[in-house]
Amino acid sequence: MSERNPSRPVEPSVANAKEPSIERLFSLFSHELYTRITSLQGALWLLRRQPLNDRPEVGQLLDLAAESADHLTRAIENILDWYGLSHGRDFLFLQPGDGADALRQAVQTLQPLADERQIRISLDILESIPLVTDERYLRRAFRGLLHNAIKFSPRDGQIWVTVTIVPSEEGPGAAIALFSIADRGVGIAREDIGRLFKPFQQIDSSDTREYGGLGLELAICHEIIRQHGGRIHVESVVGRGSTFYVALPMDVSRVL
């Protein structure tokens, strides 16, 4: 959910109709489940730092509980973010910002997870990429795409993050920053690509899905990029990996 900044808000894609039952559910997630799960995370964090008195099984159980609590927290955050963005509770406030900083910070946040899975992240971007952006939400979108790449990459794999500047059809001097995040993971079948950015869609819908999640991460990314006036698409080959592209209009008034 975004901080309120004194600049231009962007309207969500779904009308903010009166939906009493959905509103009550949103309130439940916000004030009951999320608050309680974060309290549980804090308690587990403290317990994991206590002496175990030669009882490694207790440490293993605490690690499992903490991992489950983290997973549930991410799921609740995704529900809150998706509902807030798509139903008009949260707005993007666009102002001059730096896409390079947003991307670097997203990589920094996900680096520990990549290190844990021995996945290398190769970053090749410009020093500065002037955009009209809500940097907090843009970081959120980049984190979602990076998390997705890590999630579906093999252990000891690699992810390539690059940015190129391409001319825009909007007029003379206009330009687009084209961000790409490429992995060599499991890949996506052609017939499934159309469902990727729809909410609550899972490519693997079997009862024994190898990869968890609610199917909201990419839908949130898509909505954030849309509200930036940008586009997102993917190219993928099953068994060879995927490349996600994000095209955002540059703020040419700040380009020397």
Automatic annotation (TrEMBL):
Keyword Nucleotidyltransferase applies: no
Top-level EC class as recorded in UniProt: transferase
UniProt feature coiled coil, ranges: none
Keyword Ion transport appears in the UniProt entry: no
Assigned keywords, A-Z: Kinase, Phosphoprotein, Transferase, Two-component regulatory system
All copies of domain Histidine kinase, residue ranges: 28-252
Record-linked SMART domains: HATPase_c
Superkingdom in the source lineage: Bacteria
E.C. numbers: 2.7.13.3
Reaction(s) this enzyme catalyzes, per UniProt: ATP + protein L-histidine = ADP + protein N-phospho-L-histidine
Example of a GO MF term: phosphorelay sensor kinase activity
InterPro entries the UniProt entry points to: HATPase_C_sf (IPR036890), HATPase_dom (IPR003594), His_kinase_dom (IPR005467), HisK_dim/P_dom (IPR003661), HisK_dim/P_sf (IPR036097), Sensor_HK_Regulatory (IPR050736), Sig_transdc_His_kin-like_C (IPR004358)
Family matches, as Pfam families: HATPase_c (PF02518), HisKA (PF00512)
PANTHER family (alphabetical): HISTIDINE KINASE 1, TWO-COMPONENT HISTIDINE KINASE
Name of the protein in its database record: histidine kinase
Originating species: Pannus brasiliensis CCIBt3594
